Amino acid sequence: MKIALSGALLAIPVAAILSSCGEHKPPAETLRPVRTVELRYDAAGESNRYVGTVQARHEVDQAFRVGGKILSRKVDVGQSVREGDVLAILDDTDYRLAVEAAQQQLDAALTQARQAESDRQRLQALKADGSVSVADDERATSNAATTKANAEAEARKLELARNRLKYTVLRASRSGAVTAVKFEIGQVVAEGLPGVSVADSGEPEIVVDVPEDHLSAFKTGRYKASLAAAPGESFDVVLRELSPQAAAQTRTYRARMKPATVRRLPLGATATLVAERAAAAQTSVAAIPASAITQTDGQPALWVVRQPAGETPATVELVRVAVHGYRNEEVLVSGPPAGVLVVTAGVHKMAPGLRVALPEVAAQTALPKQASR
Hints:
Helices cover 29% and strands 38% of the residues. The chain contains five helices and 25 strands. It has helices at 2-23, 93-126, 134-166, 215-219, 359-372; strands at residues 32-33, 36-38, 41-43, 45-56, 59-63, 68-73, 80-81, 86-90, 169-171, 176-181, 188-189, 194-199, 204-211, 222-227, 230-242, 252-259, 270-278, 284-289, 294-296, 299-306, 314-320, 322-327, 330-334, 341-343, 355-357. The strands form six sheets. A six-stranded antiparallel beta barrel has the order 4-13-16-15-14-17. A five-stranded mixed sheet has the order 1-25-21-20-19. Strands 3-18-23-22 form a four-stranded antiparallel sheet, with no helix packed on it. The longest helix has 34 residues, at 93-126.
C-alpha cells in the first residue's frame, strides 16, 4: 500500500515537468538596432571652411576736431543714429571767448583800414596841386593796402574761431549703428582722438582670414556662408576684397565677402564661410557621417549591412574604404558599391556576422504589439 502510494506521488511531479517542458518555447533572438545611411556617390570637390565675423563695410571713427572736456554724451553702444545727429558735446567756454576776442580784433582792424583809406583819399586830392610829395602819397597808399589786408586776415581768424566753436559739438558723419564709445562725461579728450565708432549696417560683410596654403584655391572657389544663429540657412556670397599682403603675426590674408543679394546681417555675429572648388580629377566619392569610420589592421573601414534577398535578419560586415578628405562633420570615402547601407552609430560595438535590425524593420515589428494592447 505504501509502495503504490509513493509511486503515484512520484508520477505527479514527473508529469508536471514533462507538461511544462512541452509548453516552454526558446526566447526570441534579440537583434541589435542600428542607424544607417545609404551610400551615394557624387563628383569629388574640394572645400575649406573658415570662421569669421560680420562687419560693416563702412565704419567711421568719429573724433572731435578740437580738444576739451566732455560736457555731455548723447549716444550709447548699439544705438542707431542718422547723419547729423549729435553724439557728444564739449565745454565751449574757452572757444566762445576766442570768438569774442577775434570779433574785437576784427573790429579794430576794420577801423584802422577805414582810417588808412580815408588818409589815402585826402592825400590823393592834395597831390594834384603839389601840396603832398610823391613819397607821402606812396606811404598812404601802402598803409591803406596793409590795413585792408590785416582786416581781411582778422576776418579769417574770426571764421576759424567760429568753426572751432562749432567743432565742440560732435555730429554723426553718416547714418548707422554705434559700435563703440570710448569716452565718458567729464573726461578731457585730445583733438582728433577717436571717440565714437559708427558702422553702416546697410552694407554688411563677412570677414575671414585665409591661410597662405589655401590662397590659390580660395580665389577660384564658390562661396556660401551661414550664421551661428542659423546654421541650417546658408546663402551665397562673393569675394569683394582680398588683402594683397599677409598679416605679420598670423601670416593669413584677410578676405571680405559680401552677400550676393541684398541681405541684412547682425553686426558682430559669428559666420562660417565654405569655399568650394571642383577637384582637378573628377573622382566619385560619397559623403557619410564621420562617426561611421572605424579601422581594421590600421586601415579605414566601414560596417556594411548585408541582407541577401529572402534572408532575414540582416548582418554586418567590415569593409575597407579609401578616405579622400573631410568636410565639416562628414568624411569623403569610396570603395563599397553605391546603395549599400552603412552603420553610422555604435560602430565600436559591431562584430562580423552580428545580426542587426534596421530602423524600418524594427518599426514594422513594433506595430502589431502596439495594436494588441
